[in-house]
């Protein structure tokens, strides 16, 4: 195949939220189709170059095809991202000017979430970019949730409607995280298993984030920021990410160890249970020794504060 046709097909598949392996499968499938069309025109008397040009013209413009493939896998993806990016930014703007005009205080930290809004806008407006689309889009969505909660929580007003708008943006971000992770082309291998792994890991990831985030903020408020505490709370997220990565890799190679790796999900369950026992149940309920073990699970870098 010529480099021209190769580049043409790459521009098409690069517009989809698929993994490298899935894009390669789509590339091979479309290449086989174009080769057959090219061969038909060559048998009619056209040269190889002419036949390729006609085949690509009949196939369609790469931007239109790529966008169509993405829309088929995830309808209205761009519209959702645009609404979330622009709506969230307008939300923080209203907060800023409300506080500025009513309390005469300029809280510039309200605009910190604009970092995530700019990333979301980039992914909405750009169809091709040389990164893992699923991974970086979902990281941007997670960043949007974190920055909105930390810097744009609507504590300046008691209006229920405004609170509902804020939580709607968070809910939309969560929905897009799940929807992006579960987007796969038709005909791929192990799609059901991959989606199951995504659902469980994303859910446990959110639960870990809620547990650790709540207590880290509490520690920061009452005891001040401590790097060691932050590192303790980062450890379970690193382990969670490694579990997620291992399971997806095993699924991609269709390994027999994929189902056996499900036992790794006991870690977030055990970690959450440790949190509940340590912070919500009496320390002598299960014995001081067991309580100390659970304390070490939560704070492995130090045994006490």
Give short descriptive properties of this protein.
305 residues; mainly alpha
Description of the molecule:
By secondary structure, the protein is an all-alpha fold. 73% of the residues lie in helices and 0% in strands. The protein contains 12 helices and no strands. Helix 1 (3-13) crosses helix 2 and helix 5 (77-103) runs antiparallel to helix 6 (114-125).
**Strand residue content:** under 5%
Largest sheet: none
Counted by DSSP, the helix tally is 12
- Unreliable stretches covering 5 or more consecutive residues: none
Content-based structural category: mainly alpha
Distance between the termini: 65 Å
Radius of gyration: 25 Å
Q: How would you spell out the order of helices and strands? A: HHHHHHHHHHHH
Helical residue percent?
Answer: over 70%
Mean pLDDT: 85
| Overall outline | flat
- How many E-type strands? 0
At a glance:
The chain is an all-alpha fold and 305 residues long. It has helices spanning 3-13, 20-43, 48-59, 62-73, 77-103, 114-125, 133-151, 160-181, 191-223, 227-252, 266-280, 288-298. The model has no long low-confidence stretch (mean pLDDT 85).
């Amino acid at each position: 195949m010529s480099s021209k046709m190769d580049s043409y097909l790459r521009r098409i598949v690069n517009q989809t939220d698929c993994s490298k392996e899935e894009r390669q499968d789509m590339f091979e499938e479309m290449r086989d189709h174009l080769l057959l069309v090219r061969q038909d025109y060559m048998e009619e008397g056209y040269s190889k170059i002419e036949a390729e040009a006609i085949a690509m013209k009949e196939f369609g413009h790469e931007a239109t095809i790529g966008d169509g493939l993405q829309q088929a896998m995830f309808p209205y993806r761009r519209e959702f991202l645009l609404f979330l990016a622009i709506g969230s930014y307008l939300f923080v703007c209203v907060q800023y000017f409300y506080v500025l005009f009513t309390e005469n205080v300029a809280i510039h930290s309200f605009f910190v979430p604009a970092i995530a809004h700019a990333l979301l806008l980039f992914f909405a407006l750009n169809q091709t970019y040389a990164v893992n689309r699923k991974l970086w889009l979902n990281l941007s969505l997670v960043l949007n949730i974190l920055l909105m909660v930390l810097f744009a929580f609507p504590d300046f007003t008691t209006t229920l409607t405004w609170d509902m708008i804020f939580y709607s943006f968070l809910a939309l971000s969560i929905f897009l995280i799940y929807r992006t992770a579960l987007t796969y082309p038709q005909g791929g291998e192990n799609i059901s298993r991959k989606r199951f792994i995504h659902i469980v890991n994303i859910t446990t990831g959110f639960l870990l984030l809620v547990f650790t985030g709540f207590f880290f903020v509490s520690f920061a408020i009452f005891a001040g920021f401590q790097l060691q505490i932050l590192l303790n709370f980062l450890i379970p997220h690193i382990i969670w990410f490694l579990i997620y990565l291992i399971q997806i890799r095993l699924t991609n190679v269709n390994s027999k160890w994929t189902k056996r790796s499900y036992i790794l999900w006991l870690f977030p369950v055990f970690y959450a249970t440790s949190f509940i026992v340590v912070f919500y149940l009496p320390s002598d309920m299960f014995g001081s020794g067991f309580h100390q073990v659970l304390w070490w699970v939560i704070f492995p870098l130090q045994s006490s504060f």
